[in-house]
Amino acid sequence: MIWNPNKECMSREQMRELQGKRLHKVVEYVYHNVPFYRHKLQEMDLSPEDIRTIDDIVKLPFTTKKDLRDNYPFGLQAAPQSEIIRIHASSGTTGNPTIVGYTRKDISIWSECMARSLTAYGVGREDTFSVSYGYGLFTGGLGAHNGVEMVGAAVVPASTGNTEKHARLIRDLGITGIACTPSYALYLAETMDRLGITKDQIKLRIGAFGAEPWTENMRKEIQERLGLKGFNLYGLSEVMGPSVSYECDEQNGSHINEDHFFPEIIDPVTLEPLPAGQTGELVFTTLTKEGMPVIRYRTRDLCSILPGECPCGRTNVRMSAIQGRTDDMLIIRGINVFPSQVESVVLTMKEFAPLYMLVVDRVNNLDTLMVQVELRPDFFNATLDTPAAIEDLEQRFAARLRSVLSIGAKVQIKAPGTIERSQGKSTHVIDKRKLY
Ligand code: DLL
């Protein structure tokens, strides 16, 4: 089934024409409503009249996460505050989150994009569907929730946490579909094993997995352990949230909702556009968004646009799985974490040298984060001479980290001189998970 054949199966000519018209409109809209974009265009001697077809997009300037941060909180918002009906936030690189406001129309388009994804996965009115992305500032929970309601399945807003109760509900309510991070799906499988809930006692058949990178091996393992078919769901808060793209039954790349989000792949160094089939940085322009449209937003995600047509009948272009990032963002238990956030905490504590290391691992299918930090020599022995004093410092550090990162981390305070000094570009991460 296809939710909106008119938009998901357009001819390429029609799609490009629609994209061109929408691009002109959004450029005109931000030109008049967002000083940041107006100034950028004026600097390049561009006016909205110069943007007539989708090919003109290459004339426009890029937008980066730094631009969003510099304009915190509402500087890039285009709609008046009275039109905004929801605000989400995602982690920034320094502790300032990125704020994204949505109008009623944005929420309605987002819900439809999510409905398109769920329909492609095979979710329908008869399904009982558990949304186990976090509800809150993160776009995963509410974003998926609205789509399930639009499709007409019964939504179970399980959110994250409380996994044992959730596992029992999956069995007792006959839940047939689940949306969560792939690592949470594995954790759920493990919890079920522990509770003695077997595959033949549950009715799960569809999984909508995303918000973090995952491999084909993980897909196989989840499918095998939960007895479902797992589909990719991709998105990012700055552009919308879950459902910027979604896999169909062919499971060969994810179809982009390109009537709303125009994709480009660029060389992250030269910033030149790359042709289909070549891997580079994914860039999105929102074509219909009102709250906070973005123009040529650099996602930092590395992937390619797949050439050729998809046998499923959809004509929307497909992107490959994410193959890495051009920055150092980590996704730990579905939460975006930048080493610079840890650094910002380290720098506020006088006991520590500016030397730290994030050690990320996956133990029993659950991501773990340990932050190692080095004591300054003057605090070593002198002030911190009892185990209680060290413990107190560890606790204060852990609490500050939690409030900045939104996830818990183990901390390890190291003696002066014991964190490895790098020879060249300093590295702050040891990631043992091998996700790409
Ligand atoms: O993770 C939105 C989302 C929620 C997508 C639920 C899918 C499901 P952010 O927190 O802003 O938004 O993080 C966006 O997560 O740039 C990618 O690096 C990564 N990411 C998201 N989906 C996938 C995926 C949500 N399917 C960042 N595969 C993105 C690989 C993904 N990476």
What does this structure look like?
This protein is α/β, with parallel strands linked by helices and 436 residues long. It has 2 domains: 1-326, ANL, N-terminal domain (Rossmann fold, 3-Layer(aba) Sandwich); 330-431, GMP Synthetase, Chain A, domain 3 (2-Layer Sandwich). Helix content is 31%, strand content 25%. A hairpin with a 7-residue loop joins strand 1 and strand 2 (98-103). The two termini are 31 Å apart. The mean pLDDT is 95. Bound molecules: 5'-O-[hydroxy(phenylacetyl)phosphoryl]adenosine. Residues 90, 133, 139-140, 210-213, 232-237, 241-242, 299, 301, 322, 331, 336 line the site of 5'-O-[hydroxy(phenylacetyl)phosphoryl]adenosine.
Fold topology:
Blueprint: H1 5-8, H2 12-33, H3 35-43, H4 65-70, E1 84-90, E2 98-103, H5 104-121, E3 128-131, H6 139-151, E4 154-156, H7 163-172, E5 177-180, H8 182-195, E6 206-210, H9 216-226, E7 229-236, E8 241-247, E9 254-256, E10 261-266, E11 280-286, E12 297-303, E13 305-306, E14 318-319, E15 324-325, E16 330-332, E17 335-337, H10 339-347, E18 352-363, E19 366-375, H11 387-405, E20 410-414, E21 429-431
Parallel strand pairs: 3-4, 3-5, 5-6, 6-7, 18-21, 19-20
Antiparallel strand pairs: 1-2, 7-8, 8-9, 9-14, 10-11, 11-12, 12-15, 13-14, 16-17, 18-19
Bound molecules: 5'-O-[hydroxy(phenylacetyl)phosphoryl]adenosine.
5'-O-[hydroxy(phenylacetyl)phosphoryl]adenosine binds next to helix 6, strand 7, strand 8 and strand 12.
